[in-house]
Amino acid sequence: MSALESSFESRFAGRLHRNEPMSRHTSWHVGGPADWFFEPRDRADLGDFLRALPRETPLWWVGLGSNLLVRDGGLRGAVILTHGAFSRLEERGDGEVWCEAGVPCARIARHCVRLGLGPAEFFAGIPGTLGGALAMNAGAFGGETWQHVEQVEVIDRSGEIRLRAAAEYRVGYRHIEAPVSDEAFLAARLRFEMRPGSHSDTIRELLLERKSKQPIGEWSCGSVFINPPGDHAARLIEAAGLKGLRVGGALVSPKHANFIINDGDASAADLEALLGEVRARVADRFGIELRTEVRIIGEAA
């Protein structure tokens, strides 16, 4: 370890870890080690870390790891965990909610329903945190994250925090384009309608419907592929006869064709190979190139 690394590690002792297995931080339970893994206490701690981090160091942001495939060789650079420190969720009045990036989307749904705000129930169907939902305009049950965003709070590589209006972002289906590439989301101001009739039973019914159709409780990342225009990825995969297709410990869910499962001993390489096989067979059968929702990062073993 160099003198710089030793000083860096001691400065953030207890919050900074070397060679942290990313399999502990992804819903697929795979992924090699990250060089550095940082769990900030708060905004000030995060800002200090970013200012101390050499500018050339690759930087990754992780919440619940529910939409992430980290390759078996791991990640070079530093990973910052948002889930935990950034967990504030509060009502601001007039249908507004202020929510930090590490808050699980299911918690947003429950909170808004208790306040009589909607439509927010769809957040219960998004398996990650608000930060990830903002980064990809995640959606479920016909709703999308950025339909409700008024303003976001972001932080850049120099630790500077600023507010940006939603209008500064170009938003599409499962995709956004940010005005500045090196900023990460810390929080968002969300707006909903006053719906006094909203009830927790609505969420319960949606989740029961989801459980009946999706392999909830198994190791997956949720929907793997983005629905192509005018069609559904699950329909195409099933029509190609790919339900139950397996590579090592990874398989296409027999319950929902757009879910790929780690049955307990899959490697990241197994999962990535199965993703590629599904894409190739759907393209061969239907001439449609499926695009992944899941983000694939890191190095091969």
Give structural notes:
There is one protein chain. The chain is of the alpha+beta class and 301 residues long. A 5-stranded antiparallel sheet has the order 6-7-15-11-12, with helices on one face. A hairpin with a 5-residue loop joins strand 11 and strand 12. The longest helix has 19 residues. The model has no long low-confidence stretch (mean pLDDT 93).
Topology:
Layout: H1 3-11, E1 16-21, E2 33-38, H2 43-52, E3 59-62, E4 68-70, E5 75-81, E6 89-93, E7 96-100, H3 105-115, E8 117-118, H4 130-136, E9 139-140, E10 143-144, E11 149-155, E12 161-165, E13 170-172, E14 175-177, E15 184-191, E16 193-194, H5 200-213, H6 233-239, E17 246-247, E18 250-252, E19 260-262, H7 268-286, E20 295-297
Parallel strand pairs: 2-5, 3-5, 4-20
Antiparallel strand pairs: 1-2, 6-7, 7-15, 8-16, 9-10, 11-12, 11-15, 13-14, 17-18, 18-19
